[in-house]
Specification:
With 385 residues, the chain is mainly α. The chain is built from 12 helices and 3 strands, in the order ββαβααααααααααα.
Length: 385
Amino acid sequence: MRASSSADSSAGHAELATNQGREQLRLSGDWTLPHYAALSGEVAALQARLPSGVAVDAAQLGALDTAGAALLLRLLGQEGLGGLLGESSALPAERRALLQAVSQAVGAPPEPPVDPRHSALGDVLEHVGITVGVFRRHLTDLLGFIGLTLEALFLTLLRPWRWRTTSLVANLEKTALDAVPIVALLTFLVGAVVAFLGATVLADFGASIFTVDLVAFSFLREFGVLLTAILVAGRTASAFTAQIGSMKANEEIDAIRVLGLNPIELLVLPRVFALLLALPMLTFIAMLSGIVGGMLVCALTLDISPVMFLSIFENDVGLRHFLVGLAKAPVFAFLIAVIGCMEGFKVSGSAQSVGEHTTSAVVQSIFVVILLDAVAALFCMEMGW
């Protein structure tokens, strides 16, 4: 008993027949997309009267694609299709694999409904867990990128012909020379504020003369390098991220890889080297500017002449305080440059992504700088430095 017929002899058919007193579903012809419309009508007509657990004869089944497999699944259901997927089935292995894939894709169980019940404590713990996961991912990415940078650094260091001198000089001008005015002005003003506050507080104890030591110690050990690093993190790390991120969005980094060049060596190392040279120099300028700002306030409000200021400075302040402050600069410079470049490589390809990763680079750089400075201060205090 044929449900329908087609003029095309290769078109697929499905019919119910009786074999030895049992009803059997016979499949024949090509169950492919060109015959989908005709087959869909046959399947709809057979579905209503197809008995449960009917045997399926697929010996004459011709070509089969995903459209035909979906129709067989609709006709037989998950249970009926299972008979065609067994090892005893007459279908070849590749067709059984196709039917299995379609069955899993179409018949995938729906996702369980989300329980709307929740508590405030659960939301807080969930947020904490997500934050910890994000922090762990950022830390892992940073350590991995530091490893890639150090690997490229060691491979390039012994090959002078591969040094990017022009790029190094250009980045050095942008990160060091162009940053001198803002660094000098900011630290000069902070030095003046520190001296004014010190003079105000110490005057009540008759110890205004120690304002000189306050300004000297604070800028040589902490404020000089810390303020400079924060300024560079906001100014240079964001610039590195925006430059590399724009190249990533424009697929220029992919072009660099296609040319057989290493983007780390070409884009990251010149920026890291430039900042390693720039930040110590800017730190030295910041120390001088802050001390000059404190000296000016001492001269105007405390009647401590510049000669007396420098004399006290020379007698009370040791060289180790200058070295402790300056030693932090290369560490801060390396991390700021690496974070800025790493966030640039993370850009996905849109202007919004460039802005998000630029903000992330600044936040991460400032966080790392302040965290390491606090750890260094505790370490130096315990060591008696």
